Amino acid sequence: MRQFDFSPLYRSTVGFDRLFSALDQVSGFDGSAQTYPPYNIERTSENAYRVSVAVAGFSDRDIAIEVKENTLTIRGEKAEDKAEKKGEVLHQGIAARAFERRFQLADHVQVTGASLENGLLHVDLVREIPEAKKPRLIPINASAPKQVEAKAAA
């Protein structure tokens, strides 16, 4: 039987988690690969999500967040600041290279905010389903039972 690797799709989408969980269960595959920069996708409530990206060394001026046609794009490019450098770097273990990370958003998923704290960029998302798309109950009009009067035979 063939194994399909859904992990690239699972890692870059938000709001499709039920579909990919089902596909992972059916295929019996659970793989993960990490690329730069590392990130997490969390579900904070039933319709709320958080994407956390490790952006150590980047400031809020170095990062751009854009949402266009169900695609969340996070770009980072470190601006060279000579005043910031105080000495010669003997070992550089903290990557500060430019990056671009894209996430496909499900329908009706909106970005509600972003914050940068302790080297982590947090992007908060919420799935807001319009009233027209929400399930609704249809009332059943039951007519009152008719009473039939029997006429006595004469």
UniProtKB/TrEMBL annotation:
PROSITE patterns, A to Z: SHSP (PS01031)
Pfam families given in the database record: HSP20
Keywords associated with the record: Stress response
Record domain SHSP: where: 30-143
SUPFAM superfamilies to which the protein is assigned, alphabetical: HSP20-like chaperones
UniProt keyword annotation of Transmembrane helix present: no
InterPro entries attached to this UniProt entry: A-crystallin/Hsp20_dom, ACD_IbpA/B, HSP20-like_chaperone
Family of this protein: Belongs to the small heat shock protein (HSP20) family.
PANTHER family on file: PTHR47062, SMALL HEAT SHOCK PROTEIN IBPA
Protein name (database record): Molecular chaperone IbpA
Organism: Labrys monachus
